[in-house]
Input
Amino acid sequence: MKPILYLAAFLLARPALAHHPTGGEAPQTVFHGLISGLAHPVIGLEHLAFIVLIGLAAAVSGRVLAGPGAFIGATLLGTALHLAGLVLPLAEWVILGSVLGLGALLVTGHRVAGPVALTGFALAGVFHGWAYGAAVIGATPMPVFAYLLGFGAIQFAIAAGIALVAGRVLQRDPAPARLAAAICMGVGLAFLFQTVEPMIFA
Output
């Protein structure tokens, strides 16, 4: 249960809108690109929540690599689409929907696996990656490459680490994994409220 409590404390303690690790400036060096890539999926709470959910889904299905691999590969594609100037409609809503949808499936005990699940992970990954792309608009190729390397590595480390830990926990009791999924859903609901609140009270 302690890892779940640590997860909750970490998620709740992060700044809600810290989506640009370099303060709005595109990384100018390989080092800055790498640091920005490592930081971006962690300081964007909705992104972090979905990465945790991917790890939980991988643990439930018993496939540690397939889900994270499909998602992370698609985030690289999404970033490339952003850098190419393609605008994905309703990206923020799709990202929030991915957190709430996958969280709900895991909370209710569904085993998220198979080709349909991997397709869903990849589709969500394109939108998450497209959002990541904003951090490197205007950067030169080498910092962009380092950024991609950084955010790919940190996402895999988190998702695979969660999958390994949760896999051991699930052998004893599925409740902690469902609690972790519920915490991630709570993050999604908080961002959903933050998004719709100005529309309601405008």
In short: Confidence is low (pLDDT under 50) at residues 4-18. The chain is about 75% helix and 0% strand.
